[in-house]
Structures are given as C-alpha cells and as structure tokens.
Design brief:
Rossmann fold, 6-stranded antiparallel β-sheet, 30 helices, globular
C-alpha cells in the first residue's frame, strides 16, 4: 500500500507538500517525477520486493510512468504471460506488471487484475493520464478537475494544499446526515470528487477533458446446482482468496473479532501456516458489548500469537485525529477502535487480513432478516397491518433492542422508526432507511435551515435507489445485497478500514472481497445465504466452515461490532466536547442546522439513548471535521489538530 498524488502541470515543490501531508501512507520511501505538463508523487509502504527496484514513480522502456497504491495478487501469472510477449522485468513488484500490462493491452489490462488498487499511468505518446480504482472500492481515489487543472491524490487532504475553494458540498452534507457516510462521486468538499469503484478514467492532457467509464459491475445469475456443489466451490474459492492475500515480504496478521467472518480467515490460514498473529479489541464493558472471549477461543483453537487491546473513551485525544485521517466526516463509531487497534498492531505486523464484506455477500446483517420479514407483511390487509404495527405488540422489545445495538432501551423514537419501516411496504428504499438511516427525510427537514434546504439539489435519494437497485429482475434479498455492496460497503466500511489502518502504515486485505469470490456469491440461491429453517444468516459460510471452526463460533448469534457511543456520550468530558461544538452560537453562525432540533436531541437523549446517540455522534463528527478542514484549514496552516480541542 502506498500514497499517490499528481497533477497536469509541473511543480516539484507543490508535490512535496502533497506527499508530506499523507506521509503516513508510505514511510519507507518517496519519489517525484516531473516534466512539462506532468508531476507525480509517490509514498511507498514496502510489501513486495523491499529493494530499491520497487521505487515509484516507475517507468518502463516505452517511457510510461505509473504511481500506484495497492496490491495485485495475481501479478505473477500476469507477468508470465507478459514475458511470453517479450516484456522483461527489472523488479519483482506488481507495480511493474501493471505498467507493462497497460503497455500491452491498454485499458483492457483492468480485466486481468485481481486485487485492490488505485493508480494513474502517464502515457506520453497519447498525452493522457489513464487511471482506475479496483472493482469493489477497497482503495480510495480523490481528484479535482476544474479550470483546466487536474489534481489527484489517495487522500482528499492532499488536494487541499492547492489553491482551491474550500466549501462544503451541501448535497453531500445532506447525504452524510442521512446515512453517516457519503456515497456517489461527490465528496463533502464542493469541488473534490471521488472515482467510483469499478471505474477507470482517461484525462486528455491536450484538451483537458476527462472521460470516466465503468469497467465492472455485479450481476446476479443464480445457478441451479446442488448445495454440496456450492459448499465445495465456496471452500475452494475462499481458500484461494485467503492464500493469495498471504503473499507478503513483511509480517502479516489478522484482525480477529470473534465473529464467523474473521474466524473463517484464521481457520483457513491455518491450512497454509502455523505462524498466525491475531489482534482483537474490546471496550471494557463486559460480554454484552465485547466479543473478546470468542476471539480468544478461536485463537486457542488455532494456536495463534494473540493480543488483546482495550479501548477507553479517550475521545478528546483521538477522535479529531481519526476524523483528520478520514478526510470526510465518517461517523461510523468503529473507526475509532480500528484506528487504535492499528496503532498497537503496527508494533508487530505491516499487513492485516480483515473479515470485511462477509455480511454484504451472504446476508449477515440484521436488517436483511427484518426487511425480508417486512416484505411478507404485504399479504396482510393494510388497515390491519397499520393497527397491529402501531400497537407494536407484534415486535417484542427484546428483538428491537438486539437490532438497534446490544444495550440500553431504544426508546420511543426508535420504536416510532420501526413502525415506519414496517408499514412502508411499497417503497423498498424508504423501508431500508427507516431502520438504517440516522436522520430520515422528515427529521432532516426539521434539522436543516431554510437556506440549507433551498441549496440542496436532491433532498431524498429514495427514487434513485429504488430505480437503481429495486427495479430489476433480482429477487428482494439480492436487491438489498447489491445496494449494500455498491454503496455502504465501498464508501463507509472499506473507507473506514483504509483510513483507520493507513495512518499507521498498515495494509489491510479483505479475502471476502476477491472479485471472483464476490461474483461466485452472486450465483448462490438466496436460501443458501439467508435460511431461517436451517440456520439463519450466512448459511453457506457456516456450512463450509463446519469442519474447520468450533461449533460455538458457527452457532453463536450474530453480533455487530458494537461501539458503546451511547455510554461514552454520557461521560462528563465528552459531554463538554459536545456542548462546545454544538453550542447555539456556533450552530447559528454556520447556517446549516436549526439549533432548536439539536437542543431537542440533547434534552431527550435520556429517553432514547441509542437512537439519539447515533444522531449526536454524526453531528459531532461533522462539527469536528468542519473545524479542522474548513474553519482552521489545517492542511495549509500546518497546525496541530490536538490544539483545536483543548
């Protein structure tokens, strides 16, 4: 993994400022390439071929120049085919393979790569930049394209050292407040974009025109095969994916939560090595929150070198740093423990494997079950359905509490949301967001000021989501899963992992998201994903892992990686931080939010802690982001983040 940066003009001093700002991504080496009309910068985190031969920017014999972040795990096979075509290699890196594959095949080289990547190649003959992001969106890519300037970087903050307008994109703020992350090509910064997963671009240096195309998408083509065929194919494909991601010239480990996804990785790795390092994080609130005892059980089963870390609520010190590294406000509370886990893991490893993606592929989330159950309500006459749901007697409190977290009562507001979800039979997108959203449409209309609302071009994304994901031949479960794979996975879950590991120069790899394995998941009958009769969620994964994992891990109830923000927000020092950043004067000066609604959230917090904690956490994250990136402009002033919150 590395950091990349560049632009379509010559300036060696400016590129050094860019890469210095993201130096954490590549502490092992750095390099600059510059000629008239082109400047590239690179930071190297050495994983394969640790010699100087892997230095970037890298050129081949035809003067193609590349800056590249990521890993292509099948590079040896591609190299062999290129050698047969007459290409000769100076290094043992995948970087050189990508460069020569583009030389040989042009944009079709993307069809060959199995991995996680973002790269840009300068082609001096065609006078173009050719760049791409991996199929799933495991690695980030930001760019600015305005006034004949094209600037790109692995992190948005690198782009901000340029003289560009630093204004909040209000449509993106609307998305963030709704979902706690931002999907789509627009970022929170008005003129900074992101390249979407599975897309490539060509930037013409002569005309200053950019063309973006999709080169991969996920299609669901269910196959009529036996259950045993799918179990055997699953096991073989997963073993191949894990084995590929064990390729490394530096120490490697696993982030082990104790859930079946990360446990499956450890169990599969044990077939290829006896030297496995595992790392787990807890919060010190007992088994209702922590999964440490399950992680320890897996560690003991496979005799791993296991280390546990307890995360305390030291948010005043760490949360602003996490948000700084996140580039955009990303209010997934798990960012904080993964960030702190990475700080400790770096003392022992440089590469980690994570279980990200298993839930999206095989219907592991609670909302998948609830939405499928909700779909059956359409057979109940609407008057009876509304009467029953409003009484909420059909939904036991225990079930609601389990879904919305694993502690505290969800309260009146949470139950109200659940009623809305259950009665919205015809609008599938709305049903999803009533249980997964942070602020629904009604709540955002109350929260945002009149001026803010008037500047938002598309307030509700329900029609877009229904049209894109719920209006095709796929059955309902696969419609839900495709949405989760295409939007929350790349721009929430995977960006959380990238931005929480790279600050400590750790490369995270995700075996479940090998694109061939993802494509295999799309061929499964849905009863092999969600099977209430035979074992609930992720049935195929459990079936495939039965000979490998302890039965207690396979049979245990699904537990989200729960971060106790509802408990943290009750602590005096953190409440002080909330009050300072969400005070009336600050909120009114910004002009985004109505303070009366924030006051209501603070006032009613005790009644519905879990519900309001999610809303308060999102607002707090945005306020910290706004202070760091807009008000103080730390990227240019070179100030210290910690000084802003003392």
């Amino acid at each position: 993994m590395c950091g990349i940066a560049g632009y379509n003009f010559e300036d060696k001093k400016l590129i050094k400022r860019m890469i210095d700002l993201i130096a954490h991504r590549g502490p092992d080496d750095k390099g600059v390439f510059s000629e008239e009309g082109v400047t590239f910068g690179h930071l190297r985190l050495s994983i394969l071929d640790l010699s100087k031969k892997g230095k970037q920017p890298m050129q081949n014999k035809n003067n193609l120049t590349i800056v590249y972040n990521g890993e292509v795990f099948n590079f040896k096979e591609i190299r062999e085919s290129l050698e047969k075509k007459g290409y000769r290699f100076k290094s043992n890196t995948d970087t050189e393979v990508i460069l020569n594959a583009y030389d040989a095949y042009g944009k079709d080289c993307l069809k060959l790569f199995n991995g996680q990547f973002a790269f840009v190649i300068y082609d001096p003959k065609k006078k173009i930049f050719f760049g791409a992001r991996d199929r799933i969106g495991i690695k980030p890519f930001y760019y600015y394209n305005k006034d004949e300037k094209f600037i790109f970087c692995s992190e948005m903050k690198g782009i901000l050292v340029h003289e560009i307008a630093k204004k909040v994109n209000k449509d993106s703020l609307n998305r963030f407040i709704a979902n706690r992350y931002i999907s789509g090509p627009n970022t929170i910064m008005k003129d900074v974009k992101r390249l979407l997963a599975g897309h490539y671009f060509i930037y013409d240096l002569k005309s200053n025109e950019m063309n973006i195309e999709k080169y991969w998408d996920l299609s669901y083509n269910i196959q009529n095969k036996s259950e045993q065929y799918f179990v055997d194919t699953f096991r073989k494909g997963f073993e191949e994916s894990v084995k590929r991601r064990m390729i490394s010239d530096v120490p490697l480990g696993v982030y082990l939560s104790g859930g079946i996804d990360s446990s499956a990785i450890v169990g599969t790795m044990s077939k290829f090595t006896k030297d496995i390092k595992t790392f787990s994080v807890g919060f010190g609130y007992g088994e209702e929150v922590d999964e440490l005892k399950y992680a320890k059980e897996v560690s003991e089963k496979f005799n791993t070198d296991h280390k546990e870390f307890i995360v305390q609520s030291d948010l005043m010190k760490n949360l602003p740093k996490v948000i700084w590294h996140g580039d955009e406000p990303l209010a997934d509370p798990a960012s904080l423990p993964v960030y702190l886990l990475s700080e400790n893991a770096k003392k022992h490893v440089t590469v980690v494997l994570t279980g990200d993606g298993g839930d999206e592929l095989f219907a592991g989330y609670e909302q998948n079950k609830f939405l499928m159950l909700r779909n059956k309500l359409k057979y109940i006459p609407k008057p009876i359905r509304q009467l029953g749901v409003k009484g909420v007697e059909i939904v036991p409190e225990k079930i609601l509490n389990h879904f919305f977290a694993y502690s505290s009562n969800i309260g009146k507001e949470g139950r109200k949301r659940f009623c809305n979800y259950a009665t919205n039979i015809d609008n599938k997108a709305k049903a999803y967001f009533e249980i997964m959203g942070i602020f629904n449409d009604k709540e955002r209309k109350e929260l945002f000021t009149h001026n803010m609302l008037s500047d938002v071009k598309l307030f509700s994304h329900m029609n877009r989501i229904n049209k894109t994901y719920y209006n095709d031949k796929n059955n309902y479960l696969n419609q839900i899963l495709k949405y989760e794979i295409k939007e929350p996975l790349p721009e929430n879950l995977l960006m959380k992992t990238d931005k929480a590991t790279m600050p400590y120069a750790i490369e995270a790899r995700v075996p479940f998201l090998d694109h061939k394995f993802v494509e295999f998941s799309s061929t499964l009958p849905t009863h092999l994903k969600l099977n209430k009769i035979k074992g609930g969620d992720k049935y195929i994964l459990k079936k495939a892992m039965q000979p490998i994992l302890p039965s207690s891990i396979i049979k245990r109830r699904k537990q989200r990686f729960y971060v106790p923000i509802d408990l943290w927000l009750q602590k005096e020092d953190i409440r002080g931080m909330v009050d300072n950043l969400l005070d009336e004067k600050t909120i009114k000066n910004q002009g985004y939010f109505n303070y009366s609604i924030i006051e209501k959230i603070k006032r009613n917090y005790g009644d519905s802690k879990l519900f309001y904690a999610r809303q308060m956490w999102s607002l707090l994250n945005f306020q910290i982001w706004n202070k760091v990136f807009i008000e103080e402009d730390i990227a240019n002033k070179k100030g210290k983040i910690s000084n802003l919150f003392i």
